[in-house]
Amino acid sequence: MRSEKAKEPGNGREKSGIDINIIVCMFGKENGMGNALANLSNIIIPALIFYVVGYGIIHHTNVYEDFIRGAKDGFHTVIDIMPTLIGLMMAVGILRSSGFLEFFGELLGTLTEPFGLPAPVVPVIIVKLFSSSAATGLVLDIFKNYGTDSRIGMMTSILLSCTETCFYTMSVYYMAAKVTKTRYTLTGALLATAAGVAASVLLAGLFAR
């Protein structure tokens, strides 16, 4: 049954169940504090810049020279990690274009299906360990085929948000910091990924009901 919408007399604004003025007053959009909260994303970056500049002036520091020095160090870091990034991106692209990820996902899907993890989600888990952008492409394919409100769509959305690009992050940051002994980092990262996968399966099962 369609919801009936009535126009508010005097100003022509529409209402649908709850008056928009009540929502506006609840969130305080008609006062200065409400506007500041509503535009927080636009305020925080300039505020951070002014804070850094003001801190440098108070402590008699040449902020501009420090910025230039940091930018130079950043360029050196990018040059050092560029071969690793190119290798990771090429490997993920080759695996995805060759169809190996789909084959591997279907192969593992027979084992994960009894635990509530569909086969189309398995390639997303594997690719997300290496590249977030490539995993996003797989997620968009799932949205196109199954829909965003389906159980698989909800599961991939939660999965993409609560897992990390473990191998990418380790290779980039450890190489930049010149760390050679990672100790238990990979083990902890994989355990956290497994926890994220389990959480996505449980939450998607709850929301999809």
Describe what this molecule looks like in 3D.
The protein is built from 10 helices and 2 strands; from the N terminus they run ββαααααααααα. It has about 210 residues and is mainly α. A hairpin with a 6-residue loop joins strand 1 (about 5) and strand 2 (about 15). Helix 7 (about 130-145) packs antiparallel against helix 8 (about 150-160). Residues about 1-30 have low confidence and may be disordered.
Give descriptors for this structure:
mainly alpha, 2 strands, globular, disordered N terminus, 209 residues, 72% helix
- Identify the overall geometry: globular
Ends apart, CA distance between termini: 22 Å
SS summary, helix count: 10
Pattern of helices and strands: EEHHHHHHHHHH
Largest sheet: 2 strands, antiparallel
Taking all Cα atoms into account, the compactness measure Rg is 24 Å
Structural class: mainly alpha
Overall strand count: 2
- Point out poorly predicted stretches: 1-30
Average pLDDT reading: 78
Percent of residues in beta strands: under 5%
